[in-house]
Write a structure and sequence with these properties.
- The structure holds two protein chains of two kinds.
- Chain A has no helices and eleven strands.
- Chain A is mainly β.
- In chain A, a hairpin with a 6-residue loop joins strand 4 and strand 5.
- In chain B, a hairpin with a 4-residue loop joins strand 7 and strand 8.
- Classes of the chains: A mainly beta, B mainly beta.
- Chains A and B meet through strand 5 and strand 10 of A and strand 4, strand 5, strand 9 and strand 10 of B.
C-alpha cells in the first residue's frame, strides 16, 4: 500500500502524559500537513512542512505541541502534558506541490482519548 | 478568520433517491475548492478539485459545481446507494486549507 499511513490508530492516555504520533506520507510528496478533527467539526489545520522545513503553524498549536520532519520523509507530532481537551482525531495528509491545485491525500488518523 | 460552511449538517435518504448538499466559502483569495468523502474508519478520499467559476466535475453518480463569484459549491449524488453513506467534506484552498464541518449522509436500504 503506497498511501499515507499513521501510527498508532488509537491512543488512550492519562492526563499529564506525553504522546507521540507518526505519519508516513506518500513517498514522492514533499508537503506534509497535520490536522485535528473533533466531533461535528471539519479538520482544523495545525501545521505544515515542505520537505524538512516547518513553514506554518496554527495558533491552535500550543507550546505543548511540537512536530518534526527530520529527513523530509516521515513526521512526528508530540503532545506534552496532555489535557482532556486534546482528545480528538489527528489526521496527517501529504501532497506533491502547493503552487498548483494540490490534492491532499489523507491517512486514516490517530484517535486520541485523554482520560 | 475564514468561514467555510456546509449544509445540511446531516441527512437521511432512501436508496435510489437523488440528493445534493451545499458548501459556502469566502469569494476572496480563492484558489481551489475541494470535495472529500470520509467513510467511517477510513481515510478521507479526494473526490474533486475545482478552480474556475462555472466548473463542473463528474465521477460516476456524483457531480459537483462551482460558483466562485457568490462563493458556493454543490455536490450532487444521483440514485444514492448505501455505500454512499459517509461524511462529505469541502475544503477552501486559499492561502491555507480550510475545511467545512461536513455533511453526514446516511442512505437507507
Amino acid at each position: 500500500d503506497t498511501g499515507v499511513s499513521q501510527d498508532p490508530r488509537h491512543k488512550i492516555t492519562k492526563r499529564g502524559q506525553n504522546v507521540t504520533f507518526r505519519c508516513d506520507p506518500i513517498s514522492e510528496h514533499n508537503r506534509l500537513y497535520w490536522y485535528r478533527q473533533t466531533l461535528g467539526q471539519g479538520p482544523e489545520f495545525l501545521t505544515y512542512f515542505q520537505n524538512e522545513a516547518q513553514l506554518e503553524k496554527s495558533r491552535l498549536l500550543s507550546d505543548r505541541f511540537s512536530a518534526e520532519r527530520p529527513k523530509g520523509s516521515f513526521s512526528t507530532l508530540e503532545i506534552q502534558r496532555t489535557e482532556q481537551g486534546d482528545s480528538a482525531m489527528y489526521l496527517c495528509a501529504s501532497s506533491r506541490d502547493r503552487s498548483k491545485q494540490e490534492t491532499q491525500y489523507f491517512g486514516p488518523g490517530t484517535r486520541l482519548l485523554v482520560l | 478568520i475564514l468561514n467555510v460552511e456546509q449544509s445540511p449538517q446531516s441527512l437521511h435518504v432512501q436508496e435510489g433517491d437523488s440528493t445534493n448538499f451545499t458548501c459556502s466559502f469566502p469569494s476572496s483569495n480563492f484558489y481551489a475548492l475541494h470535495w472529500y468523502r470520509w467513510e467511517t474508519a477510513k481515510s478521507p478520499e479526494a473526490l474533486f478539485v475545482m478552480t474556475l467559476n462555472g466548473d463542473e466535475k463528474k465521477k460516476g453518480r456524483i457531480s459537483a459545481t462551482l460558483n466562485t463569484k457568490e462563493g458556493y459549491s454543490y455536490l450532487y449524488i444521483k440514485g444514492s446507494q448505501p455505500e454512499d453513506s459517509a461524511t462529505y467534506l469541502c475544503a477552501f484552498q486559499g492561502q491555507n486549507f480550510v475545511f467545512g464541518p461536513g455533511t453526514r449522509l446516511s442512505v437507507l436500504p
